[in-house]
Amino acid sequence: MWWLKAVVISASVCLVLGKRDFPPDFVFGAASAAYQVEGAWNVSDKSVSIWDYFAHTYPEKIVNNATGDIACDSYNKWKTDIELVSELGLHFYRFSISWTRLMPTGFPDYISEDGKRYYNNIIDTLLEKKIQPVVTMYHFDLPQSLQDLGGWTNPLVADWFANYARVVFSLFGDRVKTWLTLNEPISFCDIAYNVGTQAPGYISPGIGNYICNKNTMLAHAKAYRVYDKEFRSKQNGKVSLANQILWLEPDTDVDGEAAEKARQLMGGMYSHPIFSKQGGWPPVIEKIIAEKSKEEGLPYSRLPAFTKEEIELVKGTYDYMGFNFYTSRTVRDAKPGEKIGAWPFEGAPDIDIVIGVRPEWKQTDAWWLYITPEGIRKQLAWLKKEYGDIEILITENGCASSNADVDDEVRVQYYKEHLEQVLLAIKEDGVKVTGYTAWTLMDNYEWTDGYSIKFGLHHVDFENPNRTRTPRSSADYYASVVKSHSLDVNNKIIDEL
Ligand code: NOJ
């Protein structure tokens, strides 16, 4: 058919011109996190983390009372996981270290030999297969013993974390060159303390979340400074943190200011202190919370201030930016008496905005995840506008489903459309995106959704003691993108001619 030939010819012209190719040194990976995949929650000398405790103590808060006790059994099946990564042809694998597996007391007085061996095995085997390890030091699983001392609301947590980071750098930094200190403080500070649906499960909106906010910034910064002083010259790696940022757009033309406020609350709180030239909290947010606190009769702001020294300590503590993206929301100012009431600002007491979704945005099986591929491009452009021409690694992006199907067309489409927007951000908007990470390598423990929501490139059979992994169509699709280093994958149409 002539028209098919025309399509093919233009497709091949595209191929030759490489319009849909990724830059030559662009890297692809997939991610997981310790509590979500490892299981073995009480094996050997591992101690209890806040997620072990939360899942065991408040089963009613989790779909089907699920726990991560066994999860994907990656503690035993790590070799299989690496095989999966290798079959996808990925350049890197992002995984996290469980603090309680490596340093069971929470402090550097005791390092677990088993913990050390486990992560050394993963790192060495990845490297043998020419896959770079990208390591997150903290993905939601604080030692419960430190939680008993206040956890992320105790200012000493910054030093506890820096001491843990020093151990991690000293054990693994000879081989690990890309680090993430903290994953998504917005989840374990704001969502956790505003609504209690994440460990540790305490509700302290407008107080606990802000104390946690400040301590995470100091913890990240102190770990970064440890790397600078003690390891960088020998190890030559890169350190950042991973923030999940929704694209927040004005509901209508008059809501530009409300949307910008919301962006500063979501993206700015954990970025401005580190990535901006001025450092410190985003000024607009700092002002609103100070005013509200005053109206409430408080002699200080509920958002703890940074001292001048702290601003300097935190500012500039990055070698790149880690960015997790899933979805978008609309924003408008609240009418008097109206409540925000919607994720991700549920329970947040200070910014009077209303969050919504557009009717044309398709919802996935996860209640919070609407498919908005253009959001990733817009958010990347916003990050560049706010913080300058910094290197950005997309540290998570992926699609939820509740069914176990291996034929996951919706997920294939999600990846394709998001990758298209990433390419546009690079090629049209000049954003320095250097890599992309699919969330997630395989179905795993999706926090309070238990095993009911799946994000995996591989299906995992949680009924089977072997936790059998099976590649989905999205795994095939992703592998072909990685192989061709382009969105013009595997020349299918040409083959069919
Ligand atoms: C971000 C978190 O880092 C990850 O743990 C979670 O599973 C995904 N979002 C999907 O909700």
TrEMBL record:
Residues 1-18 form the signal peptide. Keywords: Glycoprotein, Glycosidase, Hydrolase, Signal. GO terms for biological process: carbohydrate metabolic process. The keyword Nucleus does not apply. InterPro entries: GH, GH_1_N_CS, Glyco_hydro_1. GO terms for molecular function: beta-glucosidase activity. The keyword Phosphoprotein does not apply. Homodimer. Belongs to the glycosyl hydrolase 1 family. This is Myrosinase 1-like. It comes from Euphydryas editha.
